[in-house]
Amino acid sequence: MSLTNALFSSVSGLETAATQISIIGDNIANANTPGFKEKRAEFSAVLGQSITAGSGFAQVGAGARVNDVGTIFTQGVFETTQRPTDLGIEGRGFFVLEGSFGRSYTRSGIFGFDQNGFLVDPNNNRLQGYGIDPATGQSNSVLGDIQVNLPLSPPQLTSSIQLGMNLDATSRIIPSAAPPASPFDPADAQNTSNAREVVTIYDSLGTARQVTIFFTKVAASEWEYNVTLADADSGTPTGDQFVIQTNGTGRLLFNPDGSLESVDGGTAFQDIVFDLETSNGSLQNQTVSFNMGPLGAGGNYTGPVSTQFNQETVTNFVTQDGFAPGTLSALEIDENGMLNGVFSNGITSSLAQVALANFGNVEGLTEIGGSRVIESVESGAPVLAPANSGNLGSIRSSSLEKSNVDLAQQFVNLIVSQRAFQANTRTVSVANELLANLVALGQ
Asked: Same structural domain for residues 177 and 278?
């Protein structure tokens, strides 16, 4: 009879209310879990029977049931941390993990390095990404474990020197003992030059070598330069303190306005061949382009230019393109998920790129615990790509995406669910009393 149906309907109401309270409790418990997404119970009515009514057939329900537990994939706010390997996804996508039970996905970006240099989550699942093509410095599109073995950054030999300086126009002219021979004497560099500049260059193995460039005024608006190595660094030692290198001697001519007119009557670039001491196994003959700046600056003296003004000699600009080998000193991850190594020699190199996955139906993913999900028939196959490409989100380093649970809303939902549970217990109580009255009629 209908009273019995009322009991069963109330029982179903108790079950659905209890399920909703359980889901709300899980949401509240995970309010501080990084990457956690709020769940909600989705109810549907149960059709019990059809009855004859005055206007025809009518339908009576048999209570409610939990039709599904949905996940709300809204963006969580970000919490800043002090670890560069703490990652958050701003937008769509999941981190890709490989572990002992296969591939899984997560929004929780708590990662760190294990003893083998793999980037892993707290459950020792390895974060997946793309390797780097050394020729281009870009992703090679080959998905695999992200591993950093604290590599050395290889050295780069010096191939060019750029020098910009002002040579004092009032400097004394140093005459040559036997013109037109050079007045500069590497055995007496101090007294046969007006100025000097020391530049550190690097050989093929990254060993630092000291290059000393001497400037000697030989006439009005005319200077001689001599590029030298210390005798100990020279492959052909002479016993003098300095050794002039091949093509290392030339003349600088200046215009009346103080700008550089010519270097050896031609361009400002000269190729100097350094004869290096090679006991360390480095390349012996190293060609380096020597540049004193553009010719005829036309009054625009900004940048690496050389001038002759009535002002003391000063170096305005000096640079060379070599560097020593370097050790990894820091890691940086940019918004594209590019894992960059910062080395002690000042070089920044890309080591890997974080991959993200997206699904056609993210609510169809299956949870397996540990803040991880796996694909299912309902979710569809994953689409894998680098971060910040296509419709995938960007990476925020030193940040964790917090749970999207709104505690205030959860407490309101909890009160509503509590009242629903209490109302269903009242229905059970009323139906029970009515059935008791019915039984009493037969006594």
From this structure: yes
> What are the counts of helices (DSSP H) followed by strands (DSSP E) for the chain?
2, 28
Residues 169, 313: one domain?
yes
* Bridge partners (DSSP) listed for residue 394: 90
Query: Do 36 and 166 have their domain in common?
Result: no
Model-level pTM greater than 0.85?
A: no
CB half-sphere exposure, 76, CA atoms < 13 A: 28
Same domain, 224 and 300: yes
Residues 51 and 84 in one domain: no
H or E element: which one contains 372? Answer: strand 372-374
DSSP 3-state of 6: helix
Minimal CA–CA distance to 110: which of 402, 386, 334, 328? Answer: 402
Query: Residue 118: which domain range?
Result: 78-153+327-401
Q: Whole-angstrom Cα distance, residue 231 to residue 200? A: 15
CA neighbor of 195 nearest in space, from 172, 162, 178: 172
Annotate 175-191 with DSSP letters as a single string: --SSTTS-S--GGGTTT
> Beta-carbon neighbour count of residue 385 at 10 Å?
18
Instruction: Give tens-digit pLDDT for 41-51.
Output: 887 777 665 55
CATH number at residue 237: 2.60.98.20
Judged by DSSP in three states, 365 sits in coil
Q: How many domains does the chain have?
A: 3
The per-residue pLDDT for range 286-302, each reduced to its tens digit, is 999 998 878 775 545 55
